[in-house]
Amino acid sequence: MPKKQINASYAPVVDKRTAKIPVAKNCLKAFFIGGLICMLGEILKNFFIDLGMQEETAVSSYLVVIIGITAFFTAIGKYDNAGQFAGAGLAVPISGFANSVSSSMLEYRSEGFVLGMAANAFKLAGCVIVWGSVSAFILACIDLILEVVL
Amino acid sequence: MKKGKRTWIFANKPSLISGAAVGAQMEKEGPMAPSFDYFFDDMRAGKLSFEMAERAFLQKACNIALEKAALQKEDIDCFLAGDLMNQIISSSFTARDLPCAYLGQFGACSTSAQALLVGAALIDSGFAEKVLCATVSHNASAEKQFRFPNEYGIQKPPYSQFTVNAAGAGILSSEKASVCITAATPGRVIDIGITDAFNLGAAMAPAAFDTIKTHLEDMALNFGHYDLIITGDLGRTGHECLMDILSDAKMEFDSKRILDGGLLIYNTHTQNVFSGGSGCGCSAAVLFVHYLPLLQQKEIRRLLFVATGALMSPVSMQQGESIPCIAHAVSLEVM
Amino acid sequence: MLIYAFLVGGAICVVGQLLMNVCKLDPAHTMCVLVVSGTVLSFFGIYQDLVEFAGAGATTPISSFGNALLEGAREGMRENGFIGILSGLLKNVSAGIGAAVVFGFFAAVFFKPKG
User: Fold this and answer.
1) pTM score
2) Any idea what the CATH number is for the domain that residue B193 is in?
3) What residues contact residue B108 under an 8 Å CB cut-off, 6+ apart?
4) Which of B24, B146, B307, C11 has the highest CB neighbour number within 10 Å of its CB?
5) Out of B50, B148, B155, closest to residue C115 by CB
6) C22, closest residue in chain B (CA to CA)
7) Subunits with 3+ C-beta pairs closer than 8 A to C
């Protein structure tokens, strides 16, 4: 049977000796770095709009730029160190999604270009796509039912 | 010969005649660097993948250990090796090039002690005369297998540990030599209920405690008998937990004489290794290239080597199981 | 707008950080929670207001992925009914997924993981 609870006499020792995660510091870093990335996105978006793009296309374009930058830094091996520092500040913006795809592809390339790199591309990102799609599908169905009923 | 609950006494005193260890960049920057035999500049050791590199590390360590003992591959009767990869591929693939019997070992990071105690038992019982014991771990291949892709920007907690890039190999012999294995206590699996795969040190500390306690009771010894007790890879968190458990158990011990391989191999303040090193190459490297020479020079005379291992897999973790842990103790003495 | 983008984007990242550090979720679970939250907020029309207010501050975090999925599904539904939900679902996010896959491919072809 799996043990779900830490042995009662040992739990206080673990609590005391396990270094505490600096939550406040991590949140501060996440806030600033996440905020800066979003601000960069906004600047890029405005730049694309100034070039004459539609708002929607500009949004897609700036996201693609961030994805490209992330893939590059992942490839040269710098993103993981930045991720250790920034935490959710890099993981939550679209850069985290891009990194999860490119890091998996890089990692599994040694197992072949088809069953290694390609098959594992969505090893981490797949959960976001599946959960997002299913939840959006269900909510859209509710919308549809409401529309028919009302 | 069994003594007490589960301690083995080796009447024929198998000797540890040589030891070797290789590392990579991180180990080269660590405080143990002068003891190492060889460093690979490249994490990939010039190979195509991290898994192949891990194999190259193990082969290199085995070759150096053979060289130091002035032996050929053909002189070895049995090869006992283990690593952290699925189906222990690094060890089995290294065994392809060896003309001797091969028994794959797995005890996660406790494999180094497991190989030593099985090897000592083989020699003591006369089934082998020369046994090559080796373990290896590689940071990148272990990250890939146990956690996330190496380039995935995950934020690790400060109590996590850094798997060492190192291989250690030692040769046991039936011939008399200065350093002998006099006794060993194989561990039992202890699961204290920890489910955080980053907190392995805290999970393994109770196993180390159980094995040390059983060993001392079986042998009717106290802590003072050993000049040093070296635990495998508890890291800072695990080491402090072990100290607390020992204090809580009202045992008399000198905290300066209980050291941990995971804290010895790296400088945890200047190197980015969180709570310390881990992996089955960690304890092996520390023992074979640092403490074996100290024993041979008779600077320390009695050493208890307690390698600790966390026996979980990515599958068991995702299925919500807690982490079963083990520790094996091997007693090394200068004759 | 820039300031709002900074504040809202940062705040969503803090929510993610708290999910990881306080609720002890791993990154994958955290992202799933944020995406599903995005679809729910979008369902009630809140996320669209947030986009209006903060621009990239709301469209950059992964929660906007959920918003984009539901928006796409809704657009499809208006045009083609039920089958439109499925055909429209990934429409708005295909640029992101496509870019991630293509750039990831070239990253993997031309580079090796550093470890």
Assistant:
1) 0.94
2) 3.40.47.40
3) B84, B280, B309, B310, B311, B326
4) B307
5) B50
6) B157
7) A, B
